[in-house]
Amino acid sequence: MGTSRVILALSAAALLISCGGDPPPYAASWSMTISRVFTAYVDNHGVDGEKVQHPRPWLLDGHGRYVTIHGVNLSGSTKFPSSEAFPDTGDEISYVGKPFPVEEAHAWFAQLAGLGFNTVRLLATWEAIEPDARGEYDEAYLDYYEEMVRIAGEHGIYVLVDMHQDLFSRHLYAYYNRETAAPHGSLEEMVLSMVPDQDADTDYSDWVRGDGAPRWALEAIMPEKDFDSPHFGTLRLLGALEPVLIQVLFDNLDLLPEDLEAEHALDPLIAVLMETAAENGIDGDTVIENMDVLMAAWGAVSALGGDDGGDLTLPEWVGALVENLPGRFGPEETTTLLPWTFWGINYLLDLDVDRAYAAFFAGDEVFPELTAPDGGSLEDYLQEAYARAWVELVKRVGKYDNIIGYDVMNEPGGFFIMLTLAAATSSLNDPAAVSGLLADLLGEELGPQIHTLATGLQLIPPDNTPETLAAWGLEGVDWMAALGLNLSFDADHLQPFYERVGRAIQAEDPRAIIWFEPSAGLRMLTGPMAQWDKHLTRLEGIKQMVYAPHHYFDIYPNPGFNEDPRDFIPEEWTYRDF
Description:
This protein is an alpha/beta fold. The protein has 22 helices and twelve strands.
């Protein structure tokens, strides 16, 4: 009888609601729709009698309900300021309006909610918060971000605050041309895309670059760089070539012998080049340097094209390359970045990206002679600024119940192969030993291939003279410490960083859930190495946390420049079978 009465009472209530009166106010129903999310724990006692807290693998809302996330990322365009225009990074920096203006926010969030989404990953960058100088924050941007969070909440959408970065900073970039005279997808197109087009309005039509850190942070890490050089972003290899000599070389290819290894085989060609050098006031050593650079570059380009470099028959497009050489410039006037279509390859193959991450996470060990502008620890100078930037953001958004967590850093870089290679080259001064070191790290096939690319494309210093190392920003590198980063980075450097920043966030917002992830590092290539690996573990001093690694299917299956993404068939989407 009791059950019947309950059913009758509920039926009467439903009838009253359906027959008369307005629906409950939105604000009232909303209070039961969204609330601050928290992580669940269960308490137990260990063998020593001490209380042990075990996390549960789910999220709960303020009403004790399980929270299932249906989310989207907002968005790739957010990574770069609204104030810049290609090909310049811009002097005045503003990210206000990214991903969309405030006046459009209601429409966009309403559309997302209507499609069934309840969460967005709202990107911020360190540069957006602290663009011009350490300790100077962009209040207009913080106002904008807070308003975006507030409006998302009005539409029932949780926000994961994500401090985004890729390849460390947008001030590391590589120019290229989308269109060349060479056939699409060919080796010729790859090469010519990196050479300035002196017949066009601009030398280049596009760039590949990072995002995240402000320029002032990068200047502290790379004090030797001339970030305002007109050559910045141009392939470093091109700056090593003297146009006059290369043109004469190209005009006298008939002097190349069939057997390059024969004694004095290159003497006739070198004699012509030396004569040209004397006529143009060029040092004779430059002739030998250029010949060495060209031979190494030919091997690297051939490797990119799947060739062994044995055939020296030059195709017609080489003439276009020669005619568009920009002139010589120093290694400090550009970066080592390459315009890979899948930009993430630069995690593996870029020395400057390696240097940036190494200085930020482990500068005291790897660059013991490099100090902050104030004379102190560069590592502390950078990480403390990053943590304070986070706190400024949390001050604005921590009061909103639709904050689902704080993603400390998107995909931190954990590849240090090129830094290890450069440091080993400067220390060992033995190409065979360096190539062998890479073979041990990356395998018998991949290791030597990377060594060929690195030396041929001028991605590492050509010698270990003090002048060269200074120009490349590699004075005083501890190469054993650089090597060690490849093996224990996550445990020894990334985890303490997460704990440092996480505690700063938590102090400002005691309800904070800290989201963290492993680095994009060597294990992506090699798989686990049980005898060496030191992994992330639970963060010490953090009350609530979510482990949030990323996984992607292969969009660009072929490494190269100007590559087309591959097509996916319907079954791959249906079954997520990528």
